[in-house]
Design goal:
- The chain is mainly α.
- Helices cover 64% and strands 3% of the residues.
- The protein has 4 helices and 2 strands.
- Strands 1-2 form a two-stranded antiparallel sheet.
- The longest helix has 28 residues, at 77-104.
- It is elongated and about 60 Å long.
- The termini are far apart.
Length: 123
């Protein structure tokens, strides 16, 4: 009995990598040119919910990556590939949300402007 081995054809992902790189750079540069909001809103959306949204996206991504690890250990390549794509898309959504939040919302000082609160925390 002869077993047939599937030939694995290497795929060239250069187009996709370069395309996503260009999109990411455009988004990063674009956030610098969006007018800053004084009310922490963008198009009527409250931006202060984005840190919670980012945490949820990161948690879901963690679960998807664990599932991808489980299915690849079971030799299910198709499911693994799909889960990795989902994790990549979630990570990209996180990146966009993170950049929008940090480019639009004023910085939150910790410990005061002169860092006097630092010693209160440490001692």
């Amino acid at each position: 009995m002869k077993t047939e081995e599937k030939k694995i054809v290497p795929r060239n992902y250069n187009r996709y990598v370069w395309g996503l790189t260009v999109v990411a750079v455009i988004i990063i540069l674009g956030t610098n040119y969006i007018p800053r909001s004084t009310s922490n809103t963008l198009l009527g959306i409250d931006l202060t919910v984005l840190p919670l949204f980012n945490a949820i996206i990161n948690g879901i991504t963690f679960i998807v990556l664990i599932a991808a690890l489980v299915v690849i250990k079971k030799k299910n390549i198709t499911a693994h590939r799909r889960l990795i794509y989902v994790a990549f898309i979630l990570t990209f959504i996180f990146l966009v949300s993170y950049l929008i939040y940090h480019s639009m919302v004023a910085a939150t000082p910790f410990g005061g402007k002169d860092l006097s609160g630092l010693f209160t925390i440490l001692y």
